Amino acid sequence: MKSSVITFPGSNCDRDMDVALKKFGFKNKMVWHDEKELPKSDLVILPGGFSYGDYLRCGSVAAKSKIMESVITFAKSGGLVMGICNGFQILVETGLVPGVLLRNKYLEFICKNIFVKIDNKDNPYFKNLDKEVFEFHIAHNEGNYFCTSDQLKEIEDNNQVAIYYCNNDGKTEEIFNPNGSLNNIAGIFNKEKNVLGMMPHPERMIDKSLSGDDGSLFFKNLINNIK
Amino acid sequence: MKVSAIITLKKDVLDPQGKVIHQTLDGMGFKNINEVRQGKYFEINVKENDPSKAKVIVEDMCKKLLANLVIENYKIIETQ
Predict the structure, then answer these.
(1) In degrees rounded to 5, what are phi and psi of residue A189?
(2) Facing residues of B43 across strands?
(3) Is A203 an annotated catalytic residue?
(4) Structural domain boundaries, residue B31
(5) Domains in chain B, number
(6) Mean pLDDT, residues A177-183
(7) Can you give the pLDDT at residue A210?
(8) Pick from A8, A24, A16, A23: which is nearest to A58 by CA?
(9) Which of A13, A137, A140, A203 is catalytic?
């Protein structure tokens, strides 16, 4: 299975993602933002970081870079595109997934482990996952998901919410919402569910001795789903 | 010619920075504030001398990059 991780100036989770993808069997290529052509890929990842120093709005400049034209074409033809953290911010700026990511509610950069609930399994990313609550990591300043009430209705009607913030029992209450996101939303699909944007970092949870192992479950399952 | 644009958050969008500025001003003794909203100001020098054409160019920039229309409004405030 072939994957491509796009590196923008200021990306800093691209190498972690490369390590994670290779660990679970992907043949991964790193692709510089200035390239025009996307290598043949089964999965394209927009990694975390601070592309272009978060100038203007997080992800807004990266969304207009050369490679993104190919990524958007790939996504629109049904290819799997996953944006993590800054990658999610880039995805919302391209319009591939609905909504925006605002500054965290309490104006703090949040860096900690959190729990998320994944119960939307009718998609290539989470199909066959045999558990619902995962411990992932978040590290962001602008992760406060927001959309208009009309958009929210459409998102919920189409079952596009991918991930919710919760506690270790899977309760998705406001007190377990780290950043003020609307309805505890931590991740969103496009309508067709081939594009996934999420704030949490599964690639930081692939080694028990360093952090945790819940990301391993996600990546193992993902490569099996794509095969 | 120079064209200026102001980007503001839409009415229903939470503006925590504006709130902090409001509270700080309040703490400094400015007790007569109803609300503070923070926005962005752009001054763009375009290669166009016709004011209405220049305005159209900057409007296009606002729609495509400078503003995110899900949460922000833009307004061209002056051309000179």
Answers:
(1) -100, 160
(2) B4
(3) yes
(4) 2-79
(5) 1
(6) 97
(7) 80
(8) A8
(9) A203
**Lowest-confidence pick of A109-113, A118-122, B9-13:** B9-13
What is the value of ipTM here, to two decimals?
Answer: 0.81
| Residue given tokens 């929210």 in the structure block | A152
Residue A145 near residue A189 (C-beta atoms within 8 A): no
**Of residues A13, A58, A85, A147, which has the active-site annotation?**
A85
Domains of chain A: 2-226 (3.40.50.880)
SS3 for A151?
Answer: helix
- We report the CATH number of the domain holding residue B70 as 3.30.1280.10
Q: Note whether A107 contacts B13, CB cutoff 8 Å.
A: no
Structure tokens at A78: 């049904």
- For A148, name the nearest residue in chain B, comparing CA atoms only: B70
Specify the pLDDT at position B78.
Answer: 77
Per-residue pLDDT reduced to its tens digit, A8-61: 999 999 999 999 999 999 999 999 999 999 999 999 999 999 999 999 999 999
